[in-house]
Amino acid sequence: MAVIYHAxxxxxxxxxxxxxxxxxxxDPGIPVxxxxxxxxxxxxxxxxxxxxxRRPMAVVLSEDRPDLSLEHLKLEYPVYGTGDxxxxxxxxxxxxxSRLLELLYENHQITAGKxxxxxxxxxxxxxxxxxxxxxxxxRDAESSLQVILxxxxxxxxxxxxxxxxxxxxxxxxxxxxxxxxxxxDLPEMEYDMITLTGAWxxxxxxxxxxxxxxxxxxxxxxxxxxxxxxxFFALAEKNTDENSGTAxxxxxxxxxxxxxxxxxxxxxxxxxxxxxxxETFEWHLQPGDSFRTPEAVLVYSDxxxxxxxxxxxxxxxxxxxxxxxxxxxxxxxxxNWEGTYFDFDEEKLLxxxxxxxxxxxxxxxxxxxxxxxxxxxxxxLGDWIVDTxxxxxxxRHFTDAVHAMGLLCGIWIEPEMVSPGTDLFREHPEWIIHxxxxxxxxxxxxxxxxxxxxxxxxxVFEKISAVLAESRVDYVxxxxxxxxxxxxxxxxxxxxxxxxxxxxxxxxLYSRLIEKFPGILFESCASGGARFDMGMLYYxxxxxxxxxxxxxxxxxxxxxxxxxxPLSSMGSHVSAVPNHQLHRSISFKTRADTAYFGTFxxxxxxxxxxxxxxxxxRRQICFMKEHRQLIQFGTFFRLxxxxxxxxxxxxxxxxxxxxxxxxxxxxxxxxxxxYRRIRLQGLDPDGLYAIEGQTxxxxxxxxxxxxxxxSDASCGEEKSEEGDYISRLYVLKRIA
Length: 736
Ligand code: DGJ
Prior knowledge:
By secondary structure, the chain is of the alpha+beta class. The protein has twelve helices and 39 strands. The strands form seven sheets. Strands 6, 7, 8, 9, 11, 12, 14, 15, 19 and 20 form a ten-stranded antiparallel sheet that branches. A nine-stranded parallel sheet has the order 29-28-27-26-23-22-21-31-30. α6 (454-471) runs parallel beside α7 (498-516) and α9 packs parallel to α10 (588-595). The model has no long low-confidence stretch (mean pLDDT 97). Bound molecules: (2R,3S,4R,5S)-2-(hydroxymethyl)piperidine-3,4,5-triol (DGJ). Residues 337, 367-368, 377, 412, 479, 481, 525, 527-528, 544, 547 line the site of (2R,3S,4R,5S)-2-(hydroxymethyl)piperidine-3,4,5-triol (DGJ).
């Protein structure tokens, strides 16, 4: 790994074993991109990669070089207005109304390691040898605006982290209108763009479509990253599939409104941008002020989409997620939400908890409804005082009772909201995001607190700290259930800063709570997976993946989520049938076989299970406890996509390749179907493997190249024992 500067050619070569990223400083000081892709040999100069052409109508850099124009160069951090006609990375307003900037090289520093930007989530290193960072300083001479571009190359991962710091080193105020985390110009457009799209209860479905001339973008204006579009896309070469071919994954470590874009021009080059959504952003920089963008993550893979995802997984799991739970297997839990909704009291919950303990579970999570005025979702949020009708002896009595059973105990909160009917709502209308005199628009009957106001964050911190200190819980599910509207703050000077300041407030609250309660396992949630992003993973190492607990829907959601996020981060539970979202009944086995591939738990009233079902749950929990280290921390491969057919398959392999768990799911039964086999991935080709429950043994190479044969009775015999929505698990152990 290195960041090399070739002074004579003014060329930077950033590389590790996987990729090279090359740009040069071109007269009069413009950073021009030359190459991003598989690692190539270093050289003193890469000028042959500079594509220039005399283009009629172009605005030229200088009269004596008619072949050079900003519009046709590949730029590292383009600005608006001085010749580049594409979307800019940075757009400002000077005091005189001008938008013009000319950012030229001033100096640079190369340092070992990588630091996390202040007040933002980011990638960290534990040792300086893990990364090298280039800080490239550019300056606009006229205004003295300085832009520092940060590039960090990770030693062991095909990962480059980029961000920008914008410093007002001049005498006048400057307003930022657009400040992207990353802009990257690629020389070709023959890519497919892969995105993860969805909505409530159908998050992160995989979509793939060819790039065309023009802008293809996704984003969020909701104040959170959203379940509609995950803050990620990949550009994959046409022949790239899960296991082979080249792909570039692009993401951002941020939880607020974002824009991610691939814009192909009519010369068939592509500009990638990702950052805070400019539509709802502005930032005022007084002389001396600076602004830091969130970090963008670039992953390069020439091992297909699985290779890309595995790099994202390692990064998220080991260098974004933090805390004592980062490397620990996650407790098997029962959550009472779908089991009881708001209809519970202490006795009812303790009965479920007793049952959970008896079945081998490790944690009870008390979901929504434990606090005053919360017998429905119409009111209650904001005061955070226990409901003594439900818990006559207080919350501590309940959590002590759960702890006394030998279970961990968790609690649900939604600290960013306030409902009508609460003291908070009555006493502090100025703490609610809305404009006085205009109608307030509710979402789930509730309103959003103004986290851009530090007083609000302080007040919520006090209230939530009191709840956590009193209850001594081990786990917190931090929910967030509406999009932001009526975006106006009663206390903020510059309203365009509200959305970003809001999310900084959320991060500040998380930081303070984590510091005060370092032992707590946080699970983030936003009506399921509407804020499932790398920003959140910095604070909460797991996220409730979706409110949809139907096993088949979950196979799609978890498949898509795995494009970026590791299994250790995916909250996944077995729920009752008929399923509450789909009204579909899928067997207990398939429900568990699906939920194993995540953090695993149950979300139903355990006291209603039959003895036979309880015996099955006991077996399931034993299975998960035996294999969760491998599942949550092993290498994950997608094998067959639910978006492309009737089957889904995936597998996890242990780091030393001695063990693997393979899951195969089929949606609908087929009569007299074709033969089926599945080629496994990631095994030791020379290792001899036994499959649990079978006598035959197989070499790893045979399983990977000839495949695991899956044909069953439905392929030809008269009677099949299996119906729709079946699943099979195969546990492989290397025996020689
Ligand atoms: C939305 C979450 O996604 C659910 O799991 C549950 O916690 C409810 N909120 C509670 O209101």
